[in-house]
From TrEMBL:
<dbReference type="GO" id="GO:0016152">
    <property type="term" value="F:mercury (II) reductase (NADP+) activity"/>
</dbReference>
<keyword id="KW-0676">Redox-active center</keyword>
<comment type="subunit">
    <text>Homodimer.</text>
</comment>
<dbReference type="InterPro" id="IPR004099">
    <property type="entry name" value="Pyr_nucl-diS_OxRdtase_dimer"/>
</dbReference>
<dbReference type="InterPro" id="IPR001100">
    <property type="entry name" value="Pyr_nuc-diS_OxRdtase"/>
</dbReference>
<dbReference type="InterPro" id="IPR023753">
    <property type="entry name" value="FAD/NAD-binding_dom"/>
</dbReference>
<keyword id="KW-0274">FAD</keyword>
<dbReference type="InterPro" id="IPR012999">
    <property type="entry name" value="Pyr_OxRdtase_I_AS"/>
</dbReference>
<keyword id="KW-0560">Oxidoreductase</keyword>
<feature type="domain" description="Pyridine nucleotide-disulphide oxidoreductase dimerisation">
    <location>
        <begin position="343"/>
        <end position="449"/>
    </location>
</feature>
<dbReference type="Pfam" id="PF02852">
    <property type="entry name" value="Pyr_redox_dim"/>
</dbReference>
<dbReference type="InterPro" id="IPR021179">
    <property type="entry name" value="Mercury_reductase_MerA"/>
</dbReference>
<keyword id="KW-1015">Disulfide bond</keyword>
<dbReference type="InterPro" id="IPR036188">
    <property type="entry name" value="FAD/NAD-bd_sf"/>
</dbReference>
<keyword id="KW-0285">Flavoprotein</keyword>
<keyword id="KW-0479">Metal-binding</keyword>
<dbReference type="InterPro" id="IPR016156">
    <property type="entry name" value="FAD/NAD-linked_Rdtase_dimer_sf"/>
</dbReference>
Length: 467
């Protein structure tokens, strides 16, 4: 079959689905895109975009209240108008959704948008139920599933009877609570915890074990230190056993004692949106709801592909989009694979967390004999002139060859420096080669060079920008 006659059904309209639809159309296929809710998916509507706007606003509020330069620049307590901040946030969300999703789909004659909820009737047919209950059939040659995920809710007794927040409702709130308790200790939980604290909430975090328990222990320790300095309370090894809501107050029974709060944010992970697709009936295999895919985004059923947060892939929008575009290539007769061996991860706390490749523990589990170095930021000129030296850069290398295996960083601009580490990993560079590269002076990314130099010398004995 030529691609001119190929009909591809795309379920969803977020990062993976849009990439799959656009690439499929580009390669000559006819596409029917099915969306049950708002076009654009999680990232632009209720995830990355609104959260980063709120985090940035909170960062500005924090700097007005306190900075390393308060002796020379007068600090003031900022006045927070959350309704106006929310209005600004939503206006930018609407603008980006129109520019990057709605407008693009309207202008593409090869893509038909169908509003409704899809479920598989068989491996070549979808039934789509509209908002008014009417049903229609979509027959396809190949299908792509990009239905994303939703906040996971833990089975804590009493929780379901309370007006708890998820990340979605927290980001849409027009008020800043006086007291906020956060259940969760990973990306969404800590990002929003710090944002609300900087906008005026008294914040307590309940971590089942510790902050970022899957990362190098130094990562969680550095963030906890930064949070303590801002008055954010972190309760490690703490879980709620009962939650109630009376007189507009949350009461949590925990192993650390009773906690009370005006609002409760539950951010313990995300659940794939696959439960209403009828996947079992056509044989698409999943694990805990996450669709199993290979590196070509193929499911266990021929001609059915998937990518993004509804699969067993890492939950990042850039991974979703990359998976969607590769699925489209494969659905239209090509051969594309998604290589996640050098996948950067960034957490937008302050300081930021950024990692790529293997941690020391992960590398040793995989059989590598490692050598690693950790450079504290008081050795990085950019951090010194910023008067902001909390954090570190860590390089993990293979001992015998010196080849870079991974990088972990906690720094003010860690998210900006990590892509250089990605390119070094892709190029299979050694730490000696990184140490010998030219890096611009007074940048945070120069810290990678300095850390690489510590494998062979004491950087404290070098002049400012010694090569």
């Amino acid at each position: 079959m030529s691609n001119d006659n190929l009909h591809i059904a795309v379920i969803g309209s977020g990062g993976s689905a849009m990439a799959a639809a656009l690439k499929s159309a580009e390669r000559g296929a006819r596409v029917t895109l099915i969306e049950r809710g708002t076009l654009g998916g999680t990232c632009v509507n209720i995830g990355c975009v609104p959260s980063k706007i709120m985090i940035r606003a909170a960062h500005v509020a924090h700097l007005r209240r306190t900075s390393p330069f308060d002796e020379g620049i007068g600090a003031v307590e900022p006045s927070i108008d959350r309704p106006r901040l929310l209005s600004q946030q939503q206006a930018r969300v609407d603008e980006l959704r129109l520019a990057k999703y709605e407008g693009i789909l309207e202008d593409n004659p090869a893509i038909t948008v169908l509003q409704g909820e899809a479920r598989f009737t068989d491996s070549n047919t979808l039934t789509v139920t509209g908002a008014d209950g009417t049903e229609s059939e979509v027959c396809f040659d190949k299908a792509f599933i990009g239905t994303g995920a939703r906040p996971a809710i833990p089975p804590v007794p009493g929780l379901s009877d309370t007006p708890y927040w998820t990340s979605t409702t927290a980001l849409a709130s027009d008020t800043i609570p006086d007291r906020l308790t956060v259940i969760g200790a990973s990306v969404v939980a800590v990002e929003l915890a710090q944002a609300f604290a900087r906008l005026g909430s008294e914040v307590t975090i309940l971590a089942r074990s510790r902050l970022f328990s899957r990362e190098d222990p130094a990562v969680g320790e550095a963030i906890e230190t930064a949070f303590q300095a801002e008055g954010i309370k972190v309760l490690n090894n703490t879980q709620a056993s009962q939650i109630s809501y009376t007189n507009e107050e949350f009461v949590l029974a925990t192993n650390a004692g009773e906690l009370r709060a005006d609002r409760l944010l539950v951010a313990v992970g995300r659940t794939p949106n696959t439960d209403r697709l009828n996947l079992e009936a056509i044989g698409v295999e999943a694990a805990r709801g996450a669709i199993l895919v290979d590196n070509g985004m193929r499911t266990t059923v021929p001609d059915i592909y998937a990518a993004g947060d509804c699969t067993d892939q890492p939950q990042f929008v850039y991974v979703a989009a990359a998976g969607g575009s590769r699925a489209a290539v494969n659905m239209t007769g090509g051969d594309a694979r998604l290589d996640l061996s050098a996948m950067p991860e960034v957490v937008f706390t302050d300081p930021q967390i950024a990692t790529v490749g293997l941690s020391e523990a992960d590398a040793e589990v995989r059989g590598f004999v490692t050598d690693s170095r950790t450079l504290t930021l008081d050795n990085v000129p950019r951090a010194l002139v910023n008067f902001d030296t909390g954090g570190f850069i860590k390089l993990v290398a293979e001992r015998e060859s010196g080849r870079l295996l991974g990088v972990q960083s906690v720094a003010g601009e860690a998210g900006e420096l990590i892509q250089t580490a990605v390119m070094a990993l892709r190029a299979r560079m050694t730490v000696n080669e990184i140490a010998d590269e030219l890096f611009p002076y007074l940048t945070m990314v120069e810290g990678l060079k300095l850390c690489a130099q510590t494998f062979t010398k004491d950087v404290k004995q070098l002049s400012c920008c010694a090569g």
